[in-house]
Automatic annotation (TrEMBL):
InterPro entries: 3'-RNA_MeTfrase_Hen1_bac (IPR024026), Hen1 (IPR026610), Hen1_N (IPR024740), Hen1_N_sf (IPR038546), SAM-dependent_MTases_sf (IPR029063). One of its GO terms (molecular function) is RNA binding. The lineage of its organism: Bacteria, Bacillati, Actinomycetota, Actinomycetes, Kineosporiales. Its cofactor is Mg(2+). This is Small RNA 2'-O-methyltransferase. Gene3D superfamilies: Hen1, N-terminal domain, Vaccinia Virus protein VP39.
Length: 479
């Protein structure tokens, strides 16, 4: 995906001063690694009369899939999508990372220039503008024109060879205006994900503060501020309402100032590096196992082996058992782990077992730890006592780690209808109190102590999306 910024110069102010503002020298192409790929900055033209800086974001498709959010469509979406080409929140984060100081409105070598309005031209050759009847070029004009831009938004056809198919949800956008560079970058940073109507990273309460900071000075008076707030905050009503309340009150003491904008830019650059909830959950589980000193570990209900792969990558775990009732899941684990190509020494550390967790299996004896990651909620409540006996009485490892969804956090998922579970195969989803009560009962019956943890953003009202219980036989904290 591509963004170009062009300015013209005068004898008193050469156009190449744009390099000072962006902190990128026109004679030196620069590449910046990001979680989603690599951002390149080059200058196709750099003369005293006219200077153009181009930001090219080269998306790494593999990294994009690894960091994908849950619930983002069917599996094919990971491989067939417009993310490498269409301007989106990926490009917004690249702007915050690569042009961080310019976004903050700072330039040590040219402070007066940073505060001045410049003749600017902005080009985004492929800009999504979703929204059905409310999308398209007209939506682009509604968002950018009130900010002082002359907007030229040309709708791109679905197929140039078949005009009857009509327009695509993309435009070739050209903006012209006399504005501060920092303001231009803040407009793009906020409005790119608004037009795309999606974000590639977790949207939580901190995004409200970020929106207010980066949009300070123009968002509070924008005629489409309600639409901007709702889309920027992933249509989460509670967050959008909070943002609109603060915008309407105009009394946010921290909404102004270069330091606030710079801090928001730094937060934006870091946000993309936040892994998916599943990845965060696995990282927490692996760390808990390390803290427990476990070396022989079973992943009970291993699925297709995502956690097993991370355990294999850590030589501290000398014996890893991947167990699941589904032969199809185990076949998927074999493919994921490339069992047929695995070195012999690695292969000797691993055992794949088809077994039911509600029955005793002597092959699971002698372990230091067992984990049940997002497993118990798939078990019928009437079968839970059998699972508890199998794991805590018969297998009885020194440490057991159990993760399960926190039902209270479901209100933070905008695409999840009220009263619905996160997965159609879930038999239940517990609140934090219900989970703690169950864990305390299990610990008391089988001689374990238990303590609690979480994975994912810890919401002050509804807690983290994943709740975790760590059972230990050797003096863990009692519930």
């Amino acid at each position: 995906m591509l963004l170009t910024l062009t300015t013209t110069g005068t004898p008193e102010r050469p156009a190449t001063d744009l390099g000072h503002l962006l902190h990128k020298h026109p004679d030196r192409p620069q590449a910046t690694p990001l979680a989603s790929g690599t951002a390149h900055v080059v200058y196709p033209e750099a003369t005293p009369e006219r200077c153009t800086a181009a930001l090219l974001l080269e998306v790494d498709p593999v990294a994009l899939v690894r960091g994908a959010r849950g619930g983002e469509g069917f599996a094919l979406h990971q491989h067939v999508n417009d993310r490498p080409y269409a301007a989106s929140s990926l490009l917004a984060v690249a702007i915050a990372s690569v042009f961080r100081t310019a976004l903050a409105g700072r330039c040590t070598s040219r402070p007066a220039l940073a505060a001045a309005a410049l003749p600017l031209q902005v080009r985004l050759p492929v800009l999504p503008c979703r929204g059905g009847p409310d999308g398209g070029a007209e939506l682009v004009r509604r968002l950018f024109a009130p900010l002082g831009w002359d907007v030229d938004a040309r709708e791109l056809p679905l197929d140039e060879e078949v005009p009857s198919w009509g327009a695509s949800p993309y435009v070739d956008l050209r903006l012209r205006g006399t504005v501060r560079l920092a303001d231009a970058l803040s407009h793009l940073y906020v409005l790119l994900p608004v037009l795309d109507d999606a974000k590639h990273y977790w949207v939580g309460a901190e995004e409200v503060e970020k929106l207010l900071r980066v949009g300070s000075g123009w968002l509070e008076t924008h005629p489409e501020r309600e639409l901007i707030s709702h889309r920027y905050l992933a249509r989460q009503r509670s967050l959008a309402s909070e943002a609109l309340d603060l915008l309407g009150g105009g009394d946010d003491p921290d909404a102004l100032g270069e330091a606030a904008v710079l801090r928001a830019a730094e937060e934006a650059a870091a946000a993309v590096a936040r892994p998916s909830l599943a990845a965060q959950r696995r990282a927490v589980v692996v760390e808990l196992l390390r803290q427990a000193g476990a070396r022989r570990v079973a992943d009970l209900g291993c699925g297709e082996g995502a956690l097993v792969a991370e355990l294999l990558a850590d030589p501290a775990f000398t014996r890893i058992v991947a167990a699941d009732v589904s032969s199809r899941a185990l076949a998927g684990a074999e493919r994921r782990l490339r069992l047929d190509r695995m070195p012999q020494r690695q292969r000797e550390r691993l055992a794949l077992l088809q077994t039911s967790l509600t029955y005793r299996d002597d092959r699971l004896a002698g372990l230091d730890a067992a984990v049940l990651v997002e497993v118990v909620e798939h078990v019928e409540p009437s079968r839970l006592p059998a699972l508890q006996r199998s794991v805590f009485a018969f297998t009885a490892p020194r440490t057991v780690v159990v993760t399960t969804p926190n039902a209270e956090h479901n209100v933070r998922f905008p695409s999840l209808p009220a009263g619905r579970f996160r997965h159609p195969d879930h038999r239940f989803e517990w609140t934090r109190e219900e989970f703690r009560r169950w864990a305390a009962d299990v610990a008391g019956q089988h001689g374990y102590g238990v303590r609690f943890a979480g994975a994912g953003p810890d919401d002050p009202e509804v807690g983290p999306p994943t709740q975790i219980a760590v059972f230990t036989r050797d003096g863990g904290d009692a519930a």
